Hints:
This protein has 13 helices and twelve strands. The protein is α/β, with parallel strands linked by helices. The chain has a domain at 2-188 and 226-251 and 297-314: 3-Layer(aba) Sandwich (Rossmann fold), CATH 3.40.50. The strands form three sheets. It has a seven-stranded parallel beta sheet, with helices on both faces. Strands 7-9-11 form a three-stranded mixed beta sheet. Strands 8-12 form a two-stranded parallel sheet. Helix 1 links the parallel strand 1 and strand 2. The chain is globular. The structure holds nicotinamide-adenine-dinucleotide and thymidine-5'-diphosphate. The site of thymidine-5'-diphosphate has 12 residues, from helix 7 and strand 8.
Amino acid sequence: MILVTGGAGFIGANFVLDWLAQHDEPVINLDKLTYAGNLETLASLQGDARHMFVQGDIADSALVTGLLTEHRPRTIVHFAAESHVDRSIHGAEDFIQTNIVGTFRLLEAVRAHWSALPDAEKQAFRLLHVSTDEVYGSLAPDAPAFTETHGFEPNSPYSASKAASDHLVRAWHHTYGLPVVTTNCSNNYGPFHFPEKLIPLMIVNALAGKPLPVYGDGMQVRDWLYVKDHCSAIRRVLEAGSLGETYNVGGWNEKPNIEIVHTICALLDELRPRADGASYTTQITHVKDRPGHDRRYAIDARKLEAELGWKPAETFDTGIRKTVQWYLDHPDWVARVQSGAYRQWVQTQYGAPATA
Ligand code: NAD
Ligand code: TYD
C-alpha cells in the first residue's frame, strides 16, 4: 500500500485516480481538505476498498505516525502543500506552516518509522517529494531551461516555501539516509484543476461571460505539462529513480500567457460558440501585474528521459483540447467547487471530521 498526502487536490487526486486505474495496490489518502481539497474529485472511488481517505494535517505527527504504524505503506508520495502564488502574496503564513513545518513534521514521523523497519522493508521504502520548477527562480528570455543543477532562486513566498521543503528533504537524505527522491515539475493543467489558476480560470470565466484577467502584458512564459503526464513521471521515478536524486519534469511546452488565453478562446469559439457570435477573445482584459511576477520558467527534462526513459504522452495541442472539453463536460463539478457546496457534500457524506 502507498500513502499519498494531498490526494484530494488537483495533481494528487489525478495521481490517485490514475494509480487505482492501473494497480490494485491500495492508497491511503491523507488530506486536510483546505479550500483546494475536494473529495468530489474522488467520487468515482466511493465504496472502493482500495482507497482509504483520512482527513488530517501532515503536521499532525501523532496522526501520521499512527497511519504509518497501522498500514505500513511501502511508499509515500508527498503532494500536500499550499500551492497558489497569488494567495501566498496575500498571506504567507499557511505556506510556511504546511510547506515547511508540515514537510518537516512528515519527514520526522517517516524517519522514526523507517528507522525501525526490518531490513527488507527499509530497503524498499521510498518517499517521493513533489516540487516545482518555481524554486529555480525566473529565466531571461534566451537563457537555457532549468536543469537539476540550477541554483535555487525562489522569488515568491510560495516558491520560497517549496524551496525550503526541497532543502529539508535533501538534508534528511544526506544526514539520516532517508530514502527520498524529489521531482521538480513545470506548470500542470488538466481535469479537476481549481479555477483560481490560469487555465481553468480562463475557461470558467469565458463560459460565464466574465472578463479574462491577464496580468500585465501577458508575455510571462510558463512551461505546461498535462497533469496525467506528471502522474506518469512520478510513477516512473518511484519505480526507478535513484535515491537522493532530483528529477525535473516538463513537456517542452513554453508559452506566453496571452497565447494560452487565445488558444482557450479559439477552442471555446469552436466547441461552444457564444450566442452573440462574438469571439471569447473580446472578454480579454489586461489587469495590474502580480508583484514580483516571474517572467519565464522552462524545464530541461532530459535527465528523466535519458535515465528513466520517460516522455510525456500529450502535446500541448492535445492536452489543452482535452482540458477544455473536460470543463465543458463537467459544469456541475465547477459550480460546486465555486459555490462551496462541495463542502456541505463532505459534511453530509462523511460527517465531521470527514473520514471514510
Ligand atoms: P492543490 O492546491 O490543488 O492541492 C493541495 C492539496 O493539499 C489539497 O487537497 C489540500 O487540501 C491539501 N493540503 C494542504 N495543506 C495540507 C496539510 N497541511 N495537510 C494535508 N493536506 C493538505 O495543489 P496541486 O496543484 O495539486 O499541487 C500538488 C503538489 O504539486 C504541490 O506540492 C505543488 O507544490 C506541486 N506542484 C504543483 C504544480 C502545479 O502546476 N499545480 C506544478 C509543480 C508542482
Ligand atoms: P498560475 O496558474 O497562478 O501559476 P503560477 O503562478 O504558479 O505559474 O499562473 C500562471 C501564469 O498566469 C502566471 O504567469 C500568472 C498568470 N495569470 C494571469 O495572467 N491571470 C490570472 O488571473 C492568473 C490566475 C494567472
